[in-house]
Amino acid sequence: MDATTTQIAVAAWESLLRAQATIARGFERTGDWTDVLPREYAVLHALSASDDGRRITELIEDALLTQAGVSRLVARLEKKGYVERRDDPTDARACRVALTAEGRETYLRLGRVHARHVREVMTRSLDAQALETLRELTQALIAPDPAPAQAPTRSQRRKPT
Fold it and tell me: Is the Cβ–Cβ distance between 125 and 104 less than 8 Å?
């Protein structure tokens, strides 16, 4: 890969990060989040598709946060009455986190407001075709990585004497 391709890749990466951060800050400033922070909403969103709840490990992937971050968010949401912990029927050592009725109602209310904000921000500069292209490009970036190359064996690492 030549220097020009590397420079373009780094510039694209930085642009992607700046766009995400700028949009996220805008959501925090203008969103009607009431007592739910945007990251807490991400956990409510991740839980919304599952009636029987999700394990913390599943929430980590969906909410794009660390284990400690998700655990703290779940504890706060539990105190607010939006989520509850349940025994995991398939693993006695684990628990599942699920929305309460109040949590589902809060998620739906905030989701409608958030969807309007997303539409407003994303269509401010992009038409439907550009949005589709953006979706396709970001989907390609999050596609699974190819299997890592196998590490050389110990004998392969030794230099001949």
Answer: no
Instruction: Assess contact for 25 and 40: CB atoms under 8 A.
Output: no
Among candidates 102, 141, 143, which has minimal Cα distance to 19? 141
* pLDDT-derived band at 150, boundaries 50, 70, 90: very low
Question: In the structure encoding, which two tokens stand for residue 134, read together?
Answer: 């953006």
Dihedral of CA atoms 77, 62, 68, 56 in degrees, nearest 10, equals 70
For residue range 2-58, what is the model confidence (pLDDT) as tens digits?
779 999 999 999 999 999 888 888 877 776 677 888 888 889 999 998 888 998 888
Structure pTM?
0.74
Give yes or no for a contact between 73 and 82, defined as CB atoms under 8 angstroms apart. no
The CA distance from 16 to 8, in Å, is 12
